[in-house]
Amino acid sequence: MKRPKTTKTVKNPRKKISISKEKNQASSVDNKFDLDEEDVYISKKSKKISQEKLLKFFNSLFSEKLYIEIYHAWCKDCKEEKSVESVKYFREELLSRNNKELHTFNFKSMRVGQHFLSAFCGNLPSIQLRKLELQDNLINDENIHNLKSLITSKQLIYLNLASNQISAEGLKKIHNEIANSKFLKYLNLGVTEGSYRVNNFSGDGGIILARILLNNKSI
User: What domains sit in the chain, N to C, each tagged with a CATH number?
Assistant: First the structure.
């Protein structure tokens, strides 16, 4: 026969507190916070979760190191708080946009910049990449140098950099790589419809673009 459960109390002249009841309530909340489930419970008291639990949840969605690294980089670029909701949003965007079988990656209008480019290009040896959409983002003169290894890759044939924040100064930094690429067939530096971001190649920009086209007959 099972013994009846007893409730332990703490002696206090002002108030009695049921410890067993408090523990049961806390455990019920923890049980709901199951990061292996699609429907994740977040305590009303705090929208934040520990990095350990967040990593566990993210690893359950993505097994590849690349996606984990670019998620953290994306959060830094767009100042997005690391949370279950942002992880789920990032996952849904990647799955709906990208087709690894066709070696295509689309990050259009995802507010990617310095940290993202560094993480993505740092993983190039493990990526089969033919087409890359980076239009309407935060790519500028300060972070565009990260694209050098990408442009010189023997895989990439399509690169869209329209509607970013690149000027003639930034174009100079990747001028040689574009001009001497034997594999790049398509390069877009123009304007994306609906975007308020604009690349500005006034001044020396026109001259640099002309040199690129003279040297690279395949674009």
Answer: 98-215 (3.80.10.10)
66/85 Cα distance (integer angstroms): 20
Full DSSP string of 53-87: HHHHHHHHH---HHHHHHHHHHHHHTT----HHHH
Q: Return d(Cα 53, Cα 37) in angstroms, integer.
A: 12
Whole-angstrom distance, CA of residue 124 vs CA of residue 105: 12
Structure confidence by residue, pLDDT tens digits, 144-164: 999 999 999 888 999 999 999
Question: Are the beta carbons of 175 and 212 closer than 8 angstroms?
Answer: yes
The residue with tokens 């040199």 is 211
Task: Quote the CA–CA distance of 117 and 119 in Å, as a whole number.
Answer: 6
Q: Which residues of 51-60 are buried (b: 16+ CB within 10 A; e: fewer)?
A: eeebeebbee
pLDDT band at 54 (very low <50, low <70, confident <90, very high): low
This prediction's pTM:
0.73
Residue with tokens 């909340």: 29
